[in-house]
Amino acid sequence: MAVTDEAIEKIKGMIVSGALRPGDRLPKESELAADLGLSRNSLREAVRALSLIRILDVRQGDGTYVTSLDPQLLLEAMSFVVDFHRDDTVLEFLAVRRILEPAATAMAAGRIGERELDTLAAQLDALGGNPSVEELVSCDLEFHRSIVQASGNSVLCSLLDGLSGPTTRARIWRGLTQQDAVSRTLHEHRAILAALRDGDAEAARSWATVHIASVEQWLRSTL
């Protein structure tokens, strides 16, 4: 194991064991290096690596702290990584989204409130019948994010938020090249919304699956 990897594992062990908790300040560099049997250079590299993935927060002039370890914060690193996807792997991201998002939509059916549903309906109405592709994509992202948040599962919400980036390009190109994409998307959104308003989890799941699968099917035919 590389020295830096060993340092990362030791700091991780302290957090997992509870020796360091969310919000705790790490001991001084010299003290922590001595306690862990590490060189200060390897410890410094480990801290730098863990700060990049939001495990640690280095505050200049103040010290290094364990972050909140909130799922949304930790999964930001995943969002950064998936932005480097290749065009031929976007289908794999869509497939994962097709598995997770319908489940989140079904969960939301029993939890989403009337005010949230009215807000979603107003957003769809504001688009009109002939929005630009950019307006449609922006609304689509916000529509699904709001529904997934209503599922009440912060980890699921963060995962799907991270997966939305790679699919944005597919949505845009679909809107530019497929004539009925706008009307179909609006129709599917309204069907999902109606199912949520009825509290029908299975209908909400089915329409969410149809909605994502239609993008996936179109993209598959273009590759």
What does this structure look like?
- With 223 residues, this protein is mainly α.
- It has a two-stranded antiparallel ribbon.
- Strand 1 and strand 2 form a beta hairpin.
- Helix 6 crosses helix 8.
- The chain is elongated.
- It starts with a helix and ends with a helix.
- The mean pLDDT is 88.
Summarize the structure.
Helices cover 73% and strands 4% of the residues. By secondary structure, it is mostly helical.
Kindly list the characteristics that best describe this protein.
223 residues, 73% helix, 4% strand, elongated
The shape, in one word, is elongated
Assembly category: single chain
Strand content: under 5%
* Through-space gap between termini: 41 Å
**Residue windows where pLDDT falls under 50 for at least 5 positions:** none
Q: How many β-strands, per DSSP?
A: 2
Q: What string gives the helices and strands in order?
A: HHHEEHHHHHHHH
Radius of gyration: 22 Å
Strand order of the largest sheet: 1-2
User: Major sheet: size, sense and barrel closure?
Assistant: 2 strands, antiparallel
What class do helices, strands and sheet pairing give? mainly alpha
Report the average pLDDT across residues: 88
The helix content is over 70%
Count of alpha and pi helical runs:
11
